[in-house]
Amino acid sequence: MSILYSLNSRLKQLLPKSFYQKVRGYYFSFLKKRQKKFSREEFKALLQERLGVKEGVDVFIHSSINQINLDFPYYEIVAIIQEVVGEKGTLLFPVWKNIKNFEEYAKNQVFDVKRTTGDMGILPELVRRRKDAHRSLHPVNSIVAIGYNAEWYINTHHQDIYPAGYKSPFYKLIEKKGMIIGLGVSSRYLSFSHCIEDIMGTEFPLQTRSSEALTFKVKKTDGELIEVKSLVPHKNIVDRDVPKFLKKHIPKEIAEDLKIGGTAFFTVQAKELAERMIELGKKGITIYNF
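and the corresponding structure tokens:
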């Protein structure tokens, strides 16, 4: 993990929440003054020419708007990406909670698919609130999608005890030969890597999920309360380094971290990366021991 990430994690633990957020805000403001400011046209060109987003493609998007310097309103980003992928494209965003104690959450909380907010940034939250958005009922790694295949991506997610397993949007992204991009973030945030762990199951060289599933209470959009069983993250997954793994083992045409105008981005081809990571995983090479 990077020195800055480790320092940030340490400060978050040590400082009072309000003071930490203030320091973090000053830091991002300082960075923005040193970054290139993207116009709407430049941002669209970046998506197409540097990140490889094409018409008709399905795109999973990780983002941190605080770390991108824009000369247009940030909420226009979603519309710009929709312009690029067109009517037949689909956009997916992570919209899950950062749950510290899954056992306590499963026992005492209800995951309300309509009202429970996510902790993945402002873009996923904007999309989650849209009338045309479809959000998966999975309490551990809920996904929100808009566009052509949106409902198909999320409709079976809660049926899989593996949060990123065969019935999840992550695996369906492989089937559709979709892609993942990072806006203002590096591949350290590439949650898709856990899909390889889940579909390999016990064949993966490290235990990354709990041994037993927990039962979560989930409230559907129509108000019906259901139970959803899911495995949860194992403590083994804490120590990992996705950017170094990709740089060492994955060709740039499959996955690449980029620094453009001082801002971090990344681009990944889902199917090709999955195939390569499964091949490496069978040899014992993973993001945990790259």
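(Above: one complete record from the training split.) The mean pLDDT is 93.
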